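Example record

One chain of 502 residues, shown exactly as stored in the release files.
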Amino acid sequence: MKKIYISMFVLFACFFSGCADDYLDVKQTETVSTDDIELFNNDNGAKSFVTAIYSKFLDWDMSSFGWIGLASITSDDADKGSIPSDLGDDKDVLDALTYNSSNPSAQSTFNANYDGINKCNQALAILPKLDKANADLRKRLTGEAKFLRAYLYFTLVKCYGGVPIVDHLSSLPISAEDKKMQLTRRTAAEVYAFIENDLNEAIAVLPNKSEYAASEKARASKGAAYALLAKVSLYQKKWQKVVDYSNMVTGYSISPDYAKMFRLEGENDGESIFEINGVGSVPIRGISGYSNTQGVRDSWGWGFNQPSQSLVKAYEAGDVRKDATIIFRGTTLYDGRVIPHLYKEVDGKKEIDTTLSPRYNFKAYSSAFTDAWETDANIKCLRYAEVLLMKAEALNELGQTSEAIPLLNQIRKRAGLGDTPAVSQTDVRKAIWKERRVELAFEFDRFFDLVRTGQAKAAFAADKSKYFPNGRVFTENKNELFPIPDSFIRISEGMSQQNPGY
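Predicted structure tokens for this chain:
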């Protein structure tokens, strides 16, 4: 019986996990045969193929422990946390920037994103065959799949540079052309061009967020595609395009209360453009282990991804974002939960146990499902505040500093701060970079911002703590990118090369 789904990287499928249970509890689609396609030839069947893509973002290997290590613990916003003896598999070497090509977090992130791309390609291959499903719905679903594929490739190109562009499913036996497609790294410029093409095609068919029903509020929209195009342009320093695409992101507004955005009441609010939607109740899923791994040690969590002292110092006096971002021991949370200090006895005296993290990531906290493995915490992927900061950065780089400053001040006002004192282009540039840090802390941007702006070496050298009293060493021409998994390099048979320094 001929399958309509073939594993994307058939040459090394063993490195990918199986298709995940999706959060709407839809029957798995990887075993659908051509004889059974009629079972899916309806509106709900068509939706199930794209639902499976969204579901991938809830998986442990996509958005949880490995990704937290790769994109957050590596930054100067976070330390490994937990306790000294608990290395979290590889979180110690990620924290120290001493990882190699066998690093499990680099490998799981690489594999998970290609697993997601596989699901996108599956949806894009099958949707045209479902002629009994609503035509307009199929167009929209195609746009969602292309947005999600672009998002996945953006993650890959930020992390690894040029990667293979796998734009369709392969059949068995695999052709020489498809083998080359799967195993040959393309340039970063080619990957960015592919992302831009997917996003432009998505824009043509996606609705605005306001046009979705309340039950579909977490789906990709036209505004999300424009916002991602702006961010993709930011990383390429295409400043005018950043401005142009940011101007196309309409219908959103800055939420008045920063802290509430990261609570249940703020999920998918007016500022939210795209977020990973965790629910936490059965059978609908949350993000596997996302809250638990970052939760307060010896209270409900593992204690990893500790906010750094460097981040604490980055907040100005009176900035409401500090207490909305960081859980401090010795405080009471908004829901009444007390976060106690833990004590030990030293020479007959009771002292605070400093071996445990004093700080934790508040943005990963779930009040309703605190002790659960899958909680209702969401990950904010694209917010309107970031669109304003991207536009401000681009305007400043274009020499339009006076137009950039009011956008920066709009973000500062929401944080309870006064107008920026920065006036010159150089000072405004630094102010925007700093504002991005405190505004987007623990939203997986900081490490990549340091790299793209050229701040990394100096920022890591200044990141001094009890863990790294002399700061951390960022090796230029190496640490800008993470290593391509050694397993992939071995199987590529010389068609792909490792990143420099690994």
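Notes: Residues 1-31 have pLDDT under 50 and may be disordered.
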